[in-house]
Design goal:
heterodimer, A: mainly alpha, two-stranded parallel sheet, 11 helices, 71% helix, B: 670 residues, mainly alpha, two-stranded antiparallel ribbon, globular
Chain lengths: 318, 670
């Protein structure tokens, strides 16, 4: 009986992230539009886009192979599973131990691997440029993310997000330089990984420096819908990680009962809104950089993560 | 009992090799040799696997009256040897059926067939050897038979030079091992491992032995900067031999390192761990960066072997560092990670070399710039190669991820180390490991994407046909093993328990009884991973999602020309190539590591000649280590050359002078 309830809560989380992900993207777009004194599309527009795309036929290039057709579903599945294993409204859910923070990063790596292959499949120059640049960005962003993970897990003595969240809620944390550096590094990685300004522009299809949109240029119909859903989920995942690790207040613990879970969901939605608002403000305030400035940006993130890990030893010694 | 069985297997392999010399001209020789190798390797795999799993491997010994007269040839089967025999014979059992299919296209079977079983026998014997003489003798058997296989196509350009370099490096490595064993035997001169184990050398001497072993075993395994022969020699051999050399022979070198350093050398000192892990980290990153710049498919895979050897040595270095500080549980974790990666790498590297061999058979091309679109012509090979690519890129739910994850967990135990250098060094190794994993993913997107996806870049690629069933069977068994080891790693970790127990005095907690087959290397609250659940979730989410969308939303498909922003170009030359794919990474890393310089020649306006771009890259390691040596040898040869053309008086003076000097030396000596 208890296990059935645990499973129910876990599946509730899977559905929750899937349901909230388009809303977060719609909210960020809306806030950005307002900051530019535009009305902007309605909050629910991403849902409508997805439904419309799902019902359309797929236009497939003659040169596309099964890799091109399988990739969207695999990308979506890997991203969805990763997003459902990050604590959102509650920690310690039944399957949360299936993947720690390193495995979640690697799951996103699997998704990216398939997507980059799909970009090369049709054999067009745009797909290649997207894949090549995406992998260049990932080759710096992934180590940076892992260095942030190192810092957190050296501090908390665990790579499990639930344990890290519990540790960060505890009294023994205090303010640490390492944590500040790790937060900045994580935010930089999140911006790069989600193809946001200043690394990439999610709103354009025709710009020479585009990365993510170039990879998926050949996709249409349901394939495009699934890929879009995966990128919404990825944004939600990064926001959830930041919220759960650095702002773990109000998060429920598994087994506390429905009231605590509902409270957790409410706090989680508020956190998403706050992070989404900050992202929109940041994106509006900054210009996109040239693609070969991106390595400097991510190299800084990597160095911040590494410094955070090293400072941990110094500050512990002092 | 088990040991006797294994020795009969080795004898059968050697006999097959000798028989192949006589029968190489017969048509059925290929089927006979590879069939024998398949059966014998499978039998040896069964024996070794059974003795590893049931724990009956505990030190069966055997002495044969061959070799040095006062020593004999000692053989011994313990848990470590049993594990490496599993790796060796699994590789052999997979390479043989691939050879059955691939070998049909062999132009000179007489140059391959006798040496293939001898190579397998040599690797088995190195792992079983229990005294220094037998070890070195069988090590040389392994080296020379693989050298003969590298030289099988010696007329092809570059192969002779590769074989020459391999021969030099192999002799140099064996020399270093010989000296290491000399130091280990000490003044008593006991060359049996038993005696060396009983009397480990003093600390300073042990450091010298470690350095010699790093050179000897490291040059065979491909540690930077001793890796230079590997990307030349491994691809030169026939593909199933390349798979054995890269997937298995480098592991035998790792075995040599583990056997000497963990077993014979006594208690480690902390700086050994620092040195080994540092070399491993540098090797990992340098290997993958070289691979990214490569567009010869087999050479790219060989550079990835260098990378993975680096990852294995990071794990071994961590294990040494922990063991030196008496943290045996952590040492067991580092060692388990390294050995599991040994097993995993032998699986996916064999698979990938088989795939490249299938491509080579189908198209005659190793250059990725002339391939492309093979997924349409060779869908099964493409699928197997894709699984291998995902596994080597450390992507869940495949096996490469699990062993790298275990290495990361070992890295995260570093705050317990008392030495400051290690405290700082180990997280840096973690960063290098993360960097190499991410770059490996980029490299295999390139390798798979440029070779198999897109449009064909040559007629050969356009007209390729799927490879034969034997080769496909070998590839699919390996691909299945990659997945099984990835989703059920607990069983494999448990199988390593007797090995780490013998070497580090501890083993990881038993994994197989844990709920849902999760793996928990240290403690549940610290870290856990469940590949099975992830695999099931991904498979279900992707499968049900696709099913639901096709049923309720739309399943219509219309074929049309590619969109390409409205300007599709029919020429396949407009696709991204291997060179253009890695150009951003070359810009980021290559300017420092390879001193990459781009020269652009743009004709002036009105001039109708084509513009040109030329990229110059330098191998910094070659320039730093090898160029001075070759320069010195050349200088010496030039100047000694004069001795050849002296007058008779000068020769007599030289002889007289030498005699006087020697007599003086003798006088001073006494």
């Amino acid at each position: 009986m208890a296990i059935a309830l645990d499973l129910l809560v876990q599946f509730g989380q899977m559905l929750l992230v899937l349901a909230l992900a388009p809303l977060l993207t719609g909210y960020v777009r809306k806030v950005k539009a307002h900051l530019l004194r535009r009305q902007g599309p309605p909050l629910l527009q991403p849902y409508r886009d997805l439904l419309r795309l799902l019902r359309k036929e797929v236009v497939l290039a003659h040169t596309a192979s099964w890799v091109f057709r399988a990739a969207p579903y695999l990308v979506f599945a890997a991203t969805w599973v990763a997003a459902s294993l990050v604590p959102t409204f509650a920690t310690g859910l039944i399957f949360s131990y299936a993947a720690d923070m390193i495995a979640i990063v690697a799951l996103l790596g699997s998704a990216r691997f398939m997507l980059a292959l799909a970009g090369l499949d049709v054999g067009t120059s745009f797909g290649g440029i997207g894949s090549s640049r995406e992998m260049m960005i990932a080759s710096l962003a992934e180590p940076a993310m892992l260095m942030v993970t190192f810092t957190l897990s050296l501090l908390a003595g665990s790579t499990q997000l639930s344990s890290i969240a519990a540790f960060m809620q505890g009294a023994g944390v205090g303010l640490r330089v390492s944590l500040a550096l790790a937060l900045i590094g994580l935010v930089m990685v999140a911006i790069a990984e989600n193809a946001r300004i200043p690394v990439d522009n999610p709103a354009t299809h025709l710009e020479l420096t585009m990365v993510h949109e170039a990879m998926i240029l050949e996709y249409s119909g349901r394939h495009l819908a699934v890929i879009e859903a995966a990128s919404y989920l990825k944004l939600l995942l990064y926001v959830s990680v930041i919220a759960c690790v650095f702002f773990p207040w109000g998060i429920a613990v598994s087994g506390q009962g429905p009231a605590a879970y509902l409270g957790g969901v409410g706090v989680y939605v508020l956190k998403l809104a706050a992070c989404g608002f900050l992202l929109a403000v940041f994106e509006t305030a900054i210009a996109k950089m040239r693609v070969f400035r991106v390595p400097d940006f991510l190299g800084a993130a990597l160095m911040l993560g590494f410094l955070a890990a090293l400072l941990l030893f110094v500050s512990r010694a002092a | 009992m088990a040991l006797t069985g294994l020795m009969w297997c080795v004898a059968a392999l050697l006999a097959a090799g000798v028989a192949a010399v006589a029968a190489a001209r017969v048509r059925a020789a290929s089927a006979l040799v590879y069939g024998t190798a398949l059966c014998v390797s499978t039998a040896a795999l069964g024996i070794a696997g059974a003795s590893l799993l049931t724990g009956h491997a505990t030190a069966g010994t055997l002495t044969l009256p061959v070799g040095l007269p006062w020593l004999g040839a000692h053989f011994r089967l313990d848990a470590l040897a049993a594990f490496f025999l599993v790796v060796v014979n699994l590789g052999g059992a997979m390479a043989s059926p691939f050879g059955l299919g691939y070998g049909r296209h062999e132009e000179t079977p007489a140059r391959v067939l006798p040496f293939f079983p001898a190579f397998l026998a040599g690797m088995n014997l190195v792992v079983l050897a229990d005294d220094a003489f037998t070890f070195l003798f069988t090590w040389e058997l392994m080296s020379l038979s693989s050298w003969a296989l590298v030289m099988a196509h010696h007329r092809r350009s570059g192969n002779a030079a590769a074989g020459y370099l391999y021969l030099i490096m192999a002799s140099f490595g064996t020399l270093a091992l010989l000296l290491a064993f000399g130091l280990l035997a000490g003044s008593a001169g006991d060359y049996a491992f038993e005696g060396m184990r009983a009397a480990p050398p003093a600390a300073g001497m042990a450091g010298a032995v470690l350095a010699l072993v790093l050179i000897g075993a490291g040059s065979k395994a491909g540690l930077v900067p001793l890796h230079v022969w590997l990307p030349l020699a491994h691809p030169a051999a026939p593909s199933h031999v390349s798979a054995l050399m890269s997937g298995v022979m480098t592991k035998v070198a790792v075995y040599g390192f583990v056997r000497i350093v963990f077993d014979l050398l006594g208690a480690p000192i902390w700086w050994w761990g620092a040195l080994v892990a540092l070399l491993g980290g540098i090797t990992a990153v340098m290997g993958v960066l070289h691979a990214l710049m490569e567009h010869d498919l087999k050479r790219l895979l060989a550079y990835h072997t260098v990378e993975n050897i680096g990852i294995i040595f990071i794990g071994l270095g961590l294990a040494l560092a922990f063991e030196a500080n008496r943290m045996s549980a952590a040492a067991a974790l580092g060692l388990t990670a390294a050995l599991f990666h040994v097993f995993n790498h032998s699986l996916f590297k064999s698979l990938l070399f088989f795939g490249s061999g299938a491509v080579l058979t189908a198209t005659g091309e190793r250059d990725m710039e002339r391939l492309g679109g093979l997924v349409h012509r060779m869908p099964l090979t493409a699928f197997a190669f894709l699984v291998g690519s995902a596994a080597i890129s450390a992507l869940p739910p495949f096996n490469g991820f699990v062993s790298e994850w275990l290495t990361f967990q070992a890295v995260l135990l570093s705050p317990g180390l008392p030495q400051w250098l290690l405290k700082f060094l180990v997280p840096a190794m973690g960063a290098l490991l993360a960097l190499s994993a991410a770059l490996a993913a980029a490299c295999f997107v390139k390798a798979f994407g440029v070779t198999f996806l897109g449009r064909p870049r040559s007629d050969a690629a356009r007209d390729a046909v799927e490879t034969d069933r034997w080769s496909l069977a070998a590839m699919f068994i390996l691909a299945a093993l990659c997945l099984v080891a990835g989703i059920l790693p607990g069983y494999f970790i448990d199988a390593l328990a007797p090995v780490t127990q013998a070497l580090a005095g501890a083993h990881l907690p038993r994994q197989e009884q844990l709920d849902w087959l999760t793996i928990v290397p240290v403690a549940q609250s610290r870290s856990s991973y469940n590949g099975l659940l992830l695999f099931l979730f991904i498979a279900l989410a992707a499968g049900l999602g696709a099913e639901a969308i096709h049923r309720w939303a739309s399943d219509a498909v219309r074929r049309s020309a590619a969109w390409d922003c409205g300007f599709p170009d029919p020429s396949p030359a407009t696709q991204y190539t291997a060179g253009s794919f890695s150009q951003p990474i070359r810009k980021v890393f290559g300017t420092v590591v390879f001193r990459a310089r781009e020269e652009v020649h743009m004709p002036p306006p009105g001039d109708m000649r084509a513009g040109r771009m030329h990229v110059r890259m330098r191998d910094v390691l070659w320039d730093a280590f090898y160029a001075p040596i070759t320069g010195l040898v050349g200088f010496g040869a030039d100047h000694l050359n004069k001795v050849q053309f002296l007058t008779i008086r000068a020769y007599l003076t030289l002889v007289f002078g030498a005699l006087v000097v020697l007599l003086m030396v003798l006088a001073i000596w006494q």
